[in-house]
Amino acid sequence: MTATMTDVPPPAAPKVKGSGGPRSRSTLTRALLYTFFGLLLLSLVRVITDADQLTSAGQIAASLGLAVPIGLAALAGLWSERAGVINIGLEGMMILGTFGAGWLGWQTSPWLGLLCGIGFGVIGGLIHGLATITFGVDHIVSGVAINLLALGATQYLAKIFFAGGEAQAKGGNPKQSPSSEALPDFSVAGISDGLSSIEKHHWFFVSDLAGILGGLVTDLSVVTIIAALLVVATWWVLWRTSFGLRLRSCGENPIAAESLGVNVYTYKYAAVAVSGGLAGLGGAFLALVTSHIYLEGQTGGRGYIGLAAMIFGNWRPGGLAMGAGLFGFSDALQLRNGGTVVHALLLLLFILLVLLAAWKGYRKAWLQCGLSALTAAAVLVWYLTTDEVPSDFVGATPYFVTLLVLSLSAQRLRMPRANGMRYHKGQGK
């Protein structure tokens, strides 16, 4: 992704494929193997360090709650960028979602607040689409403007709607709304208690698996279920339907798509509207599930982290879901457990760096091999000579993980070919 845009390249056969067949099955197999291997390493680190919180049900439940808004922001970015529109404005659209949900949620019901948050996000997405698609404004400039305008507009509106009258009497002030009712949550009866019992034995791998599964079926918010279904629905719509094929062709080569009869503007606008709605839903989750109020600064940069999760996932729903889960997990670690448990991750980082060095050595990439080995040695020394990670570093754990993951995955990334490029209607005729 670049901060400047160029004209769309001349027509060429768009390389837009579906996701059926052997290649799709191979990708799923690799993902399952990576997940199994990652859980095995995490279990090993947990046993060695006695950091039982690493895979506890509470840790996983907290991680899931923190991952949902990031995942929704990443999904929003996926829709927009698959249609060729870079969406740096995810943060602003999430801010609009938090305000809309908090504003209507306390006055009526949280369900209407949820819809209002989505609607406010859609408005933000359409404004971004108007600027970039119709008027050809640089996508980065428009996205930054959306972020600034959303922040200023919500601060102004909060002073109008929450700082007086009934809102003030119910706890509102210029920086937050009154509290709204909670959305329903539930646990899977029987399974949740059984998994909790297995987790308490602290068996290698088995208890870790039970803890992870227990966190996924205990006190689940209904919005979390909706978010998981949206990931699956996005994969099906974009990779299994003719609508999705046409939308993705707009992000690969809009001129060639137009020459085949695709109304590129329509698909781009549909994509940014869905993108804004998903980002608004992520903001509504923060306002109605995490805290039950709108609060100034509530998003805390999650729109940007969602963008990083989307890039980590290589513009794919499954990949971005894994990225969001990773960032949510690292954030939950530092919020719940502090430096002691984060210190255990140094051992995990050491093992991963050793494996990376071995792989680079096998591929005869000696420079990368040497750098990975030296970094692994430094991490091991840090782990052996300390008992916990300093508090300043603990707070930066999610951002450090973001940078580390993006740097390690950068070589395999492939964004949509025409992402961020100017397109003018009629170029394909």
Structure overview:
This protein has 429 residues and is mainly α. 70% of the residues lie in helices and 1% in strands. It has helices at 22-49, 57-82, 90-107, 110-134, 139-161, 165-169, 191-199, 206-216, 222-240, 242-252, 254-259, 264-290, 302-312, 317-336, 339-362, 366-385, 391-395, 397-409, and strands at 185-186, 220-221. It has a two-stranded antiparallel ribbon. Helix 2 (57-82) crosses helix 8, helix 2 (57-82) runs antiparallel to helix 14 and helix 9 crosses helix 10 (242-252). The chain is globular. Mean pLDDT is 87; it is low at 1-6 and 8-19.
Q: In terms of per-residue confidence, which ranges show pLDDT below 50 for 5 or more consecutive residues?
A: 1-6, 8-19
Task: Tally the helices.
Answer: 18
The amount of beta strand, in percent, is: under 5%
Share of helix, binned: over 70%
* Strand ordering within the main sheet: 1-2
Instruction: Write the element-wise H/E pattern from the N-terminal end onward.
Output: HHHHHHEHHEHHHHHHHHHH
- Mean pLDDT, all residues: 87
State the end-to-end CA separation: 28 Å
Shape: globular
Q: Oligomerization state of this entry?
A: single chain
What is the radius of gyration?
23 Å
Q: Describe the largest sheet.
A: 2 strands, antiparallel
What is the total tally of β strands? 2
Q: From the helix content, strand content and strand pairing, which structural class follows?
A: mainly alpha
